[in-house]
Design brief:
Keywords: DNA-binding, Pyridoxal phosphate, Transcription, Transcription regulation
Organism: Tatumella ptyseos ATCC 33301
GO molecular function: DNA binding; DNA-binding transcription factor activity; pyridoxal phosphate binding
Structural class: alpha/beta
Number of helices: 17
Shape: globular
Protein name: GntR family transcriptional regulator
Distance between the termini: 34 Å
Family: In the C-terminal section; belongs to the class-I pyridoxal-phosphate-dependent aminotransferase family.
Strand order of the largest sheet: 3-10-9-8-7-4-5-6
Number of strands: 13
Radius of gyration: 24 Å
Length: 504
């Protein structure tokens, strides 16, 4: 049932035109609290009820409520719901001053640095990290949690002192050794355990190497299109980011007036993100030769190398030559689960001590018991077995989604580079279509896709949608595909032709 509160919020939402939907909902809720529409200690509607009344997804309202809680506008307690705080945050108590400011200005913290403002200005991390069709999300429900839990429980019974203090040795030595043994076999990595530094994912590894191996305004190359997370970290660290085009053979590494010799090159050679191509052998050798000649470092993000569904795996850049000028990055986020926050950086021997010391100084590493548990998980063979199972599962889901695209959208929508690998594919769209608007409409229907155009830095952008298929089963893929297809019909990109339930 609609309430006066809901009518007020709906009216205010009509005047909120900027930002994502959850940001607009957040702003009208903040203003309603500041103005006293929701008095102190008033219980807010449940996320389910408010989402239904506003005509948005429940995730949108949950994200707005989480932000209200973090900023001190509301309190939340099990059994009593979400309530307006008895005392509002100090920066919004002067309602007259707040009323004079634009809504967007009222929600920004004061006195941001230019670097902080740039970070927020480029921020693109999505609040939606699960479900159809979130790219890069593994099926965390299929992970053997009981096995890892048993290993952890045993370690917790009598933990060693070294596992309970800060790490300054590059991470758990057992995990570093397990990784050295594993990577030597499956990725032909040429390194011993001392050359491995455990990180909290790829972002920390990128931050570490960009801080230690480059100076402000140094030129660095990234792929175009490429991963926004790497791009934004490099920007924040003050580097001069040059996007280098990608074609069917991967990055096109050529030094020109537009792309001067870099200090570092960031590349995803095994499964380029987001297009999915792999860097050809000839270009790998050319890039290595260029790095030696011009004395720059190659930062290899071995994204999705574990999930190749046909053919032989491509060798890593790091293992292609002896003493290659390559720093190799990997993570357990896709193979185990993202919240684990364990990644690794394999560095040349000349850099192992400087980078290990810098990592300890910057991040004060920890989580050593879980790192030890993961080392046992690998050494006992559970890791390799889990990857084999997931490879079969993801391959099946990929084939199912490709079949729906082929049958109900047609060849023109098939991925431009249909390599049989990874956790997502690119749904191709006409160059003049608005993939951002289509993604926004899909999200309003509960389907989370990402527009390909947002992965480009330059104006000449290809259009498409990234569809992650790994974390949803065939029935969920079928349901989400029908909702997404309706968005394409509304955009005038395909004809009305209902999919059959027999396809699910």
């Amino acid at each position: 049932m609609r309430t006066l509160y809901t009518d007020h919020l709906l009216e205010r939402l009509q005047f909120e035109q900027h930002g994502r939907l959850h940001q607009r909902v957040l702003r009208v809720l903040q203003q309603a609290i500041i103005e006293g529409v929701f008095p102190p200690e008033t219980r807010l509607p449940s996320t389910r009820d408010l989402a239904k009344q506003l005509g948005v997804s429940r995730n949108t309202v949950m994200t707005a409520y989480d932000s209200l809680l973090a900023e001190g506008y509301v309190t939340s307690r099990t059994g009593s719901g979400t309530r307006v705080a008895a005392t509002l945050p100090e920066f919004c108590l002067n309602s007259e001053k707040s009323a004079e400011l634009p809504h967007s200005a009222q929600t920004l913290p004061p006195s941001l640095s230019s670097r902080g403002a740039a970070l927020l200005g480029y921020a693109t991390a999505s609040p939606f990290q699960w479900g159809a069709f979130v790219p890069g999300a593994p099926d965390v429900t299929a992970f053997p949690h009981k096995i890892l839990s048993k290993i952890q429980a045993k370690l917790h019974q009598q933990p060693e002192i070294d596992q309970l203090i800060y790490s300054n040795g590059g991470g758990c030595p057992h995990l570093r050794q397990a990784l050295a043994d594993y990577l030597r076999v499956v990725r032909s990595i040429r390194a011993d355990a001392d050359q491995i530094i455990i990180t909290e994912g790829i972002h920390q590894a990128v931050d570490l190497v960009s801080r230690v191996l480059s100076d402000q305004n140094d030129p660095v190359w990234i792929e175009e299109p490429g991963y926004w997370g790497t791009r934004n970290l490099l920007r924040i660290n003050g580097l001069d980011v040059h996007p280098v085009p990608v074609d069917e053979e991967g990055m096109i590494p050529e030094i020109t007036a537009r792309h001067p010799a870099p200090k570092m090159v960031f590349v995803t050679p095994s499964h380029q993100y987001p297009l999915g191509v792999h860097l050809s052998l000839s270009r790998r050798k050319h890039l290595l030769a260029m790095a030696r000649r011009h004395r720059f470092w190659i930062i290899e993000d071995d994204y999705d190398s574990e999930f190749r569904f046909s053919g032989s795996p491509y060798p890593s850049l790091q293992g292609l030559e002896d003493d290659a000028p390559v720093l190799y990055m990997g993570t357990f986020s896709k193979t185990l689960y993202p919240a684990l926050r364990i990644g690794y950086l394999v560095v040349p021997k000349s850099l192992q001590q400087p980078l290990r010391t810098a990592a300890a100084e910057l991040y004060r590493g920890g989580h050593l018991i879980i790192q030890r548990a993961v080392s046992e998980f690998i050494s006992q063979g559970h890791y390799a077995a889990h990857i084999r199972r997931m490879r079969l599962l993801y391959s099946q889901r990929r084939r199912f989604l490709l079949g729906l695209i082929q049958r109900y959208l047609g060849e023109a929508f098939m991925p431009p580079y249909n390599h049989d690998a990874g956790l997502h594919l690119v749904l191709r769209l006409p160059d003049k279509s608005d993939d951002v608007a289509i993604a926004r409409e899909a999200l309003s229907k509960g389907v989370s896709v990402r527009p390909l155009s947002q992965y480009y830095m330059q104006r000449q952008k290809k259009r498409g949608l990234l569809l992650g298929y790994a974390c949803v089963n065939e029935q969920q893929i079928f349901t989400a595909f029908n909702l997404l297809r309706q968005c394409l019909i509304n955009a005038g990109l395909c004809r009305v032709r209902p999919a059959s339930q027999s396809d699910s």
